[in-house]
Amino acid sequence: MTRLSLSTENLSHGLNATHTAIVAADGAQFDYDASVFLHVVNTDDTDPITFTIRTNFTNDGLALPDRTFSVPALAERFTKFLKRDVYKQSNDKVYIDASADGLEVAVLKAL
Length: 111
What we know:
By secondary structure, this protein is mainly beta. The chain has one domain (4-109): Hypothetical Protein Tm1070, Chain: A (Sandwich). It has one helix at residues 84-87; strands spanning 4-5, 8-10, 20-22, 28-31, 36-42, 49-53, 58-59, 62-63, 67-71, 76-78, 93-98, 103-109. The mean pLDDT is 96.
């Protein structure tokens, strides 16, 4: 699996954010930044899609489960800022996955 690399956009008034389609078989990644959040859109007109943000946190031998949420058909969701010690992978990236094709993601940076 080769993850798609996503670019980060600076948030501004009137921004028409660029959303990138996530291929379920490959997933995606972007550079970790404490000021980044995600806008997730399900373009499928019938089925919900599960969106996953991979964690990289273990405490006392227990791994924190990945963050998952369902995006209903033709709906959109936002995440909040992502904590470094939870979501940043060893290569300074954040990994995201989708349960099916049809999910589009914008990586937005609050300035």
